[in-house]
Structure formats: C-alpha cells, structure tokens
Amino acid sequence: MKLPSYVKKYFWEVDADKLDLNKRKVYILKRLLEYGDPQTISWAWKVFSRKIWLEALKSKEVSMMTKNFWRSLLSKKK
Fold it and tell me: Where in the sequence is the domain holding 71, given as residue range(s)?
C-alpha cells in the first residue's frame, strides 16, 4: 500500500514513494501523530491498528504533549 499524496508531505527527508507502509508503520505513525492534519489523522485511524498506535506512543520521538493527547483519546476508544 502506498501513502496517499496528502500524507507524503510529512516525510520531507526521505522518498515518500519508497516508504513501505507494512515495514515502517511505527515510523510513519509517529510522524503523523506529531505533524498530521485532520485528513491525515483520519487516514491513520483507518490504516493503523490500536496496537501500532500504542507502540508509536512509546517512542521518545513523540512529544509528551502529543503522547498525553492521544493516550487520552485512545483510552476512551476501547
């Protein structure tokens, strides 16, 4: 599965067309959690499992403010 065109802009340091969604799920989601717009987050909700969301939120690359926000929402979406 390829990234939609509106998601590619968040991966400025790599060739987004070559990102393997299956192999780089956590990397992709971490970036979108920090910088994604509503359209991108909506796409991520559909594509990534709850397990991947929780794994991405464990990363040191995700700010504490972002972690707290998404953990709060995920705890309500059980």
Answer: 5-76
Buried b (16+ CB within 10 A) or exposed e, 20-34: eeeebbbbbbbbbbe
pLDDT of residue 78: 56
- Type of residue found at 28: I
CA distances from 9 to 15, 37, 55, 58 (A): 10, 11, 23, 24
Tell me the C-alpha to C-alpha distance, in Å, between residue 77 and each of 3, 16, 20, 21, 72: 25, 30, 27, 24, 9
Number of domains in the chain: 1
Q: Is the pTM of this model over 0.85?
A: yes
